[in-house]
Design brief:
The complex is a heterodimer of chains A (268) and B (106). By secondary structure, chain A is α+β, with helices and mostly antiparallel strands. Helix content of chain A is 47%, strand content 15%. Chain A has a six-stranded antiparallel sheet with strand order 1-6-2-3-4-5. Chain A has a two-stranded antiparallel sheet with strand order 7-8. The two termini of chain A are 36 Å apart. Chain B is 31% helix and 32% strand. With 106 residues, chain B is α+β, with helices and mostly antiparallel strands. The termini of chain B are close together. In chain B, strand 4 and strand 5 form a beta hairpin. A five-stranded antiparallel sheet of chain B has the order 2-1-5-4-3. The chains are: A alpha+beta (268), B alpha+beta (106).
Chain lengths: 268, 106
C-alpha cells in the first residue's frame, strides 16, 4: 500500500486535494479524517468514482467531508473502489462541492460549528408556523444539551444537512443558543498565566481583536488541547498560527503574525 | 513587516524556495537538490495551483516522501518553500504568509 500524498486539512481543504489528485490522473483512495469522523474518496485515473463518509455515500459524502477544516488526509495509490456511487465528471464534482461550501459559509456565519448546542425558543414571533417532517425530526431531538453532531448521529443525517436544517429553524425564530447566557457568566472570571509568552500573545492579540482577546486565547488553547504554560515551540507556533487565522481583518492578522514570529524566532 | 526570505532560510529544515509569477519561475535550491532542475514540473504545479477562483485557502502543503512543499499563493504569485519534514511547520507557514504578503505589496 503506497502512500503518496498526505497533509493537514487546516491548510488544504478537500476540493483542493481532489483537484491535485485529479490533475495527476491518479487511481487510488483518499482517506480523510477530522478526528471524530473518517471518509474515503476513490479515484480512477483522476475521476472521482466513489465516496463514503459514515452512512453517506456519493456526492453527499464529499459534501460532508468538504466542510472539514481540521484533521488530516492521506492518498493511497492503486487502492480501487469496490463500487461506483458517483458518475459525474470531475469538473461537476468540484463545482457542486464549491457551491455547497459557499452555502455552508453562509450557514457557519450563524452556526459556529457542529459542536453548537441549541434549545427551543419559548417566545415564538409567529402565530402559526409550518415545519417539514425532517425539520420536526430535528426539533424533536433538541433539548439544550445535544450538539448538532449528536443530533446528526441520532437522526442519521449528515452534519452539513443537519446544520442546514438548524440554520432554517434559527431563521424561523424557533431555536436559541443554549450556551449564550452561561458562557457570558463563566467568561467574566478568565485569568491568564502570567508568563512572558502568554502576556506577549495576549497583548498582540488585544491589538488585533480588542478586549475579546483573552477569551479567544483560552478558547483556542482549549480547542487545540494546548497548555498555555507549554515549553514546546511547535505547540506555541501552532497556537499562534491558529489564532492568526481567527483574526477577521487580514492586515491585523498579518501584524499579529509579524509580532509573534519575532517572538518565536528568538526561541528556535 | 519583518517577514523576509532571510528569516525563512534561518528556520531549521528549510532547504530553499521557488517563486513563480506568470511565465517566470525562480528556483533557489542547493545545486544537488532533487528539485533544483525540476523547472518544468514546478511550473506545472504552479499552473495547477494558481487558479485561485476555485481554491478556498491560500496555503497548500504537499508531502513528497521526505520533502515538504509549502506553497503560498496570492493572485498570480506563488511562493513555495522546500523543506524537510522535521521543520517547525507552523513557524514556516507564519513566515511564508508574511513573505507572500510583502511580495504582493511590492
Amino acid at each position: 500500500m503506497k502512500q503518496e500524498i498526505s497533509g493537514d486539512l487546516a491548510n488544504t481543504r478537500c476540493p483542493e486535494i481532489i483537484k491535485i489528485i485529479s490533475l495527476g490522473k491518479r487511481t487510488g483512495r483518499l482517506y480523510l479524517t477530522n478526528g471524530a469522523e473518517t471518509g474515503n474518496i476513490f479515484f480512477s485515473e483522476g475521476e472521482v468514482i466513489h465516496a463514503q463518509c459514515a452512512a453517506l455515500t456519493g456526492i453527499k459524502a464529499i459534501h460532508e467531508i468538504a466542510v472539514w477544516t481540521s484533521g488530516e488526509y492521506r492518498f493511497f495509490v492503486d487502492e480501487p473502489a469496490d463500487m461506483q456511487t458517483i458518475i459525474m465528471g470531475i469538473d461537476e464534482v468540484l463545482s457542486e462541492t464549491t457551491s455547497h461550501l459557499r452555502q455552508m459559509d453562509k450557514i457557519t456565519s450563524l452556526i459556529p460549528s457542529s459542536a453548537a448546542v441549541y434549545a427551543l425558543e419559548p417566545d415564538i414571533r409567529e402565530k402559526e408556523i409550518q415545519v417539514k417532517s425532517i425539520q420536526w425530526k430535528v426539533i424533536s431531538t433538541i433539548d439544550g444539551k445535544n450538539s448538532i453532531a449528536d443530533i446528526a448521529q441520532t437522526i442519521g443525517l449528515g452534519v452539513s444537512d443537519t446544520m442546514k436544517i438548524i440554520y432554517t429553524l434559527l431563521r424561523m425564530g424557533l431555536l436559541r443558543d443554549a450556551a449564550q447566557h452561561e458562557t457570558h457568566v463563566e467568561r467574566r472570571s478568565i485569568r491568564l498565566p502570567e508568563t512572558e509568552f502568554v502576556q506577549s500573545l495576549k497583548n498582540a492579540l488585544i491589538q488585533a481583536v480588542g478586549p475579546i482577546a483573552p477569551f479567544m486565547l483560552v478558547d483556542t488553547a482549549e480547542e487545540l488541547a494546548t497548555d498555555l504554560l507549554t515549553d514546546s515551540t511547535d505547540q506555541k507556533a501552532y497556537l499562534i498560527e491558529t489564532l492568526s487565522s481567527k483574526i477577521p481583518n487580514e492586515k491585523m492578522s498579518l501584524k499579529f503574525l509579524d509580532a509573534m514570529t519575532d517572538w518565536l524566532k528568538a526561541e528556535v | 513587516m519583518k517577514g523576509t526570505i532571510k528569516d525563512l532560510l534561518q528556520i531549521p529544515g528549510v532547504q530553499g524556495y521557488v517563486i513563480a509569477q506568470g511565465k517566470n519561475i525562480q528556483i533557489k535550491l542547493p545545486a544537488k537538490h532533487a528539485f533544483a532542475l525540476a523547472k518544468d514540473s514546478l511550473m506545472l504545479l504552479y499552473n495547477g495551483l494558481a487558479d485561485d477562483g476555485k481554491r478556498p485557502g491560500n496555503t497548500v502543503e504537499i508531502l513528497l516522501e521526505d520533502i515538504l512543499l509549502t506553497a503560498f499563493l496570492s493572485g498570480s504569485t506563488m511562493f513555495m518553500v522546500v523543506s524537510s519534514l522535521r521543520v517547525n511547520q507552523a513557524l514556516l507557514r507564519m513566515t511564508g504568509k508574511l513573505i507572500i504578503s510583502n511580495m504582493v505589496k511590492e
